[in-house]
Design a protein that fits this description.
Elements (H helix, E strand, L loop, with lengths): L7 E3 L8 H6 L8 E6 L2 E7 L11 H13 L12 E10 L4 E9 L6 H7 L5 H20 L12 E4 L2 E4 L25 H9 L9 H17 L14 H13 L1
Helix pairs in contact: 4-6, 5-7
């Protein structure tokens, strides 16, 4: 495998999609992930599709610049961050029948935090504390390097046994809380400022910062403490941005 503290700049031929990885892959038709092999180890590739606002910009170069920013972060060996293994500027994405840049990261077969909690309904408080602390330490590492997550949520906390790792960090040009088709990826975890501006369609939104990440973290900590999402009784569909807005701003007015 490539050195643990570097991001390998890959050629498309370095990324292997063989019969075994295709058989084990569980991603649906809308996913931007694939299980592949790099240096004979199973990893994930995330295809980096440009947002509409980036359509007229040099997308691969923007991403290459982001890779340079993240290289130093990879030197931190105990950060509870999913390691970025490689970056490829142009690779074919079969489900879209088009070529895009791709990011290669560690593969975690144990699933995410939500999967973990669903399997451990009687999770001891000591274990909850340890998981919460490691997630918080991982976020602190990101902020120490001037990196904001932009999309921190339960599904972006991956588990290796009982140990959590933050995934999908960095790449601020990719991690937009609002997808290009206008559907909010996880409005429940957005700060009130970001949610209100996105929902109302602000033309000059407030730049994302560490406070927004910390707000998102608080919802993850709630989930760990109570083993359920906030407002579980009121919100059945956590993608319902309008309902979440109405609850948040009603609370804020009191």
């Amino acid at each position: 495998m490539a050195s643990q503290n570097t991001i390998k700049i890959c050629e498309p031929s370095d990324i292997i999609k063989d019969a075994e990885t295709k058989r084990k892959s569980v991603f649906n038709s809308t996913s931007v992930l694939d299980l592949v092999k790099l240096d004979n180890e199973e990893v994930l590739i995330k295809y980096l599709l440009p947002r509409k606002s980036m359509a007229n910009k040099d997308w691969p170069t923007l991403l290459s610049n982001e890779v340079e920013k993240l290289k130093e972060l990879q030197l931190n060996q105990n950060s509870n961050l999913v390691r970025i293994r490689g970056f490829v500027k142009d690779i074919h994405f079969e489900r879209r029948n088009n070529n895009f840049p791709g990011l290669v990261v560690d593969y975690f077969s144990d699933g995410n935090l939500q999967n973990y909690i669903e399997k451990h309904s009687d999770l001891p408080w000591k274990k909850r504390y340890e998981i919460a602390l490691k997630i918080t330490e991982g976020l602190r590492t990101l902020h120490q390097f001037g990196v904001y997550h932009n999309d921190l949520k339960i599904s972006n906390i991956l588990m290796k046994g009982d140990v959590p790792y933050i995934s999908d960090y960095g790449f601020s040009v990719v991690n937009d809380p609002c997808r290009s088709n206008g559907i909010y990826s996880a409005p429940l975890f957005l700060s009130p400022v970001q949610l209100e501006e996105l929902f109302l369609g602000s033309k000059n939104p407030t730049p994302y910062n560490e406070k927004d990440d910390i707000y998102s973290l608080s919802f993850i900590l709630y989930y760990i403490a109570y083993l359920k999402k906030p407002w579980a009784a009121e919100i059945k569909d956590t993608s319902d941005a309008s309902l979440i807005c109405s609850i948040l701003f009603k609370i804020k007015d009191h």
